[in-house]
Design goal:
Blueprint: E1 16-24, E2 27-39, E3 42-51, H1 53-58, E4 62-70, E5 74-84, E6 87-95, E7 100-108, E8 111-119, H2 128-136, E9 145-151, E10 156-169, E11 172-182, E12 187-196, E13 203-210, E14 213-224
Antiparallel strand pairs: 1-2, 1-14, 2-3, 3-4, 4-5, 5-6, 6-7, 7-8, 9-10, 10-11, 11-12, 12-13, 13-14
């Protein structure tokens, strides 16, 4: 299912850490980050998001995500720690050949409840974090698209990424890629990622349309650990 092995994907480098500044209604609303690390024969992607300012007071979000990704097979496992207002949930998803196993631990009415569920497997599936890196390594040109399966934790959807026209993000030439999920009857959860038009194809900005207005995440820093 992969277009190119991660090891030969030019814009993706082990040890790279990206940090974005999140804005909402013209105000800084928080920060997000992601880092690619070695993990045995595959890779580990660690990511997170923290609100700040008025967003922290209105609806605090402090999420942590870890994806274990194999270039040849897709996501191997995906763990999440959601702390979003009163919603608190920990999940671990393991993508096995015979089933997707999801273990959830959630705070409900002051008590933690744990359960395990199994779902039908799909070959070459991505999780929400590894999907972001797969799109980046796809080298899309204007008008081109790529499609692949993504598991949300409860079902497998088809993700479609379509490249639009070149534009500018600040002074950076970028290519906007519209991303959406398709459950077979409708497309939802649309957002746009702008990748720099150079060999790094950095995700310089992400724009998500929400009921409370657009939220943008603009790349603020790129660091290399030298791993």
């Amino acid at each position: 299912m992969f277009l190119v092995a991660l090891a030969t994907a030019a814009p993706i480098e082990v040890g790279e850490r990206l940090e974005w500044s999140i804005e909402w209604m013209g105000m800084k609303a928080g920060v997000a980050w992601a880092q690619l690390l070695p993990d045995g024969e595959g890779y580990r992607i660690e990511a997170g998001c923290d609100t700040a300012g008025i967003a922290e007071r209105m609806y605090p979000v402090h999420d942590r995500l870890t994806s274990r990704w194999s270039p040849e097979e897709g996501s191997r496992s995906y763990s999440t720690r959601f702390r979003e207002g009163r919603f608190q949930q920990d999940q671990f998803m393991e993508f096995l050949a015979d089933a997707f196993v999801v273990r959830r631990r959630q705070l409900t009415d002051g008590a933690w409840a744990t359960r395990e569920e199994r779902y039908a497997p799909t070959e070459g599936v991505e999780d929400p974090v590894s999907a972001f890196y797969r799109i980046r390594s796809s080298e899309l040109s204007p008008g081109e698209s790529t499609r692949f399966p993504v598991f949300t934790g409860r079902r497998t959807l088809t993700l479609t990424a379509t490249a639009g026209r070149p534009s500018l993000v600040g002074k950076t030439p970028a290519l906007g890629v519209e991303v959406g999920t398709d459950n077979g009857t409708e497309v939802s959860r649309r957002f746009t990622v702008y990748f720099s038009q150079d060999e790094d194809r950095l995700p310089v900005q992400v724009v998500v349309q929400t009921r409370a207005g657009p939220v943008s995440a603009t790349l603020a820093r790129r660091q290399m650990s030298g791993l």
